[in-house]
Amino acid sequence: MTDDGSPSAGGTPPLEAVRAAMARLDEAESWPALREALEADGLDRRLGADGMQRLADVWRERAVRALDDAALAAEVRFWAEGGDLPLHPEGFRAPLPGDLAAEAKRRGWFVRPLGTGGWVVNAPDEAPKTLPARR
C-alpha cells in the first residue's frame, strides 16, 4: 500500500475503502452518480483500477439481477435483434449481453456459449435467441 492509502501495484485495496465503496454502491441511483461519489471521497484512488473494475462488475450484476423475467427476456430480445448501446433506451448504461447471459443461466434458463463468443439464450416459453459476443 502506498502512503496515501491506495493499493500498491498488484495489491488489494484497504478493507475500509472497500466497505465505504460498498456503502456508496448501496446508496447510488446510477453508475455515474456512484463514480462521482467515489471520486469526491478519494475512494477511486484507494480502490485502484482493479477495485473500481470489480465494483463496476458488482454494479452490473445487481442491475441485471433486479430485472424481472419479462424485462430480462426483453433485454435479450433487444440484443438478439441487432440492438447496440447507442440504440438502447438507457444508452451506455444498458445491460450488456454477457451480463444478461450470466443472469439467465443463474435463473436456470437454457444458455449455451457459442464458439464465436456469443450465447444462445432460451427464456421460458420463448424461442431461443442469439446474443452477440459483447461483455
What topology does this entry show?
Layout: H1 15-27, H2 31-40, H3 43-65, H4 69-80, H5 97-106, E1 110-113, E2 119-122, E3 129-131
Antiparallel strand pairs: 1-2, 2-3
Task: Give a written overview of the molecule.
This protein has 135 residues and is mainly alpha-helical. It has helices spanning 15-27, 31-40, 43-65, 69-80, 97-106, and strands at 110-113, 119-122, 129-131. A three-stranded antiparallel sheet has the order 1-2-3. The chain is elongated, with a radius of gyration of 17 Å. The two termini are 31 Å apart. The model has no long low-confidence stretch (mean pLDDT 88).
Total E-strand runs = 3
**What is the structural class?**
mainly alpha
Characterize the overall form. Answer: elongated
Strand content: 5-15%
Average pLDDT score: 88
Number of helices: 5
- CA-to-CA gap between the ends? 31 Å
The succession of helices and strands, N to C, reads HHHHHEEE
Helix content: 40-55%
Radius of gyration: 17 Å
Q: Main beta sheet: strand number and arrangement?
A: 3 strands, antiparallel
Q: Residue ranges: pLDDT <50 for 5 or more in a row?
A: none
